[in-house]
Amino acid sequence: TKEINPLDHALSTLIKQADKFFNKDYNPEIDRKVSKALLKTYAELIPAEQRISIFKVIDKEFKGNIDAFVDACFDISIFRSREAFDNFVAKPDAKTLENDLMVQYAKSVDQGYADTDAAMKAETDAYNLAHKTWVEGMMKLKQHEGTPIYPDANSTLRLTYGKVGSYSPKDGMEYNYYTTLKGVMEKEDPNNYEFVVPAKLKDLYNKKDFGRYAMKNGEMPICFVTGTDNTGGNSGSPVFNNKGELIGTGFDRNYEGLTGDIAYNPQLQRAACVDIRYTLFIIDKFAGAKHLVDEMTIVE
């Protein structure tokens, strides 16, 4: 086997990271403004003796002027633009990389995280030990009282139950319990990858070609919400009706229900679920994999 040159490997890794960084969505001027604001906020909140090491550079070389430091990063760093980065890669130099302000900045942030973790290790270890003792005591208490215990959603079989239903987050406002494909079209944004709508899906929508998966009113259902308790790790969980039939897949919770890990609020807590009809529609009509649907037992 051919021996890999460490420098070539390092450059290859750096280039791959640059390809992800320098994309059409990245705006260096916005990043410049945000960096100035965040560093100033950090300096206001963190005492000088506890700040990350890059502030020594800011104090020594820029006389404490955060704006000047950030401007220097975006004006002279090899990471200021794709062109500047490519010029460096053409003639790579370890000393240039080591002295680069953005590199120094990134290293100081990483070291800051490491130092914080190390400083908190004793307290974290003590907390984890105490938490295990507390959980064990609470479980014994609930068992003694005859109170049922359900596990969390990580690496365990976690069951919860509730009803499908709308909710009112504030006076005069009510959210319906389901959404439709119409909403997907309304939220389309070709410049945001999260809201890009494929041409084929738009074509199916315009033709109302929903097959057997549309609701009785002709609309194509997308999601629904339920009053079930959910938490981190529940994403991907199957949602069954009272007959044991799969009706959806849990994937999120509503904004107003984010406090659910602390306290469950039946008026506001909602789990967001993908309607199984939409899943089947995508498999069948959009992806053209009807043979997969044919293998399933579909209850209508």
Commentary on this structure:
The protein has helices at 6-21, 28-45, 54-61, 66-76, 82-90, 94-99, 101-145, 181-186, 199-207, 276-286, 290-294, and strands at 167-170, 173-175, 178-180, 221-226, 238-240, 246-253, 271-275. With 300 residues, the protein is α+β, with helices and mostly antiparallel strands. The strands form two sheets. A five-stranded antiparallel beta sheet has the order 3-4-7-6-5. Strands 1-2 form a two-stranded antiparallel sheet. The longest helix is centred in the middle third of the chain and has 45 residues, at 101-145. The chain is extended and about 70 Å long. The model has no long low-confidence stretch (mean pLDDT 89).
- Report how far the terminal alpha carbons are from each other: 59 Å
Percent strand equals 5-15%
| Sequence of strands across the biggest β-sheet | 3-4-7-6-5
Mean pLDDT: 89
* Portion of residues within helices: 40-55%
Largest sheet: 5 strands, antiparallel
Can you write the helix and strand succession as a string? HHHHHHHEEEHHEEEEHH
Unreliable stretches covering 5 or more consecutive residues = none
Please give the radius of gyration in angstroms.
27 Å
Instruction: Please report the total strand number as a whole number.
Output: 7
Helix segment count?
Answer: 11
Shape: extended
Q: What structural class results from the helix and strand content?
A: alpha+beta
What layout of secondary structure does this protein have?
Blueprint: H1 6-21, H2 28-45, H3 54-61, H4 66-76, H5 82-90, H6 94-99, H7 101-145, E1 167-170, E2 173-175, E3 178-180, H8 181-186, H9 199-207, E4 221-226, E5 238-240, E6 246-253, E7 271-275, H10 276-286, H11 290-294
Antiparallel strand pairs: 1-2, 3-4, 4-7, 5-6, 6-7
Helix pairs in contact: 2-4
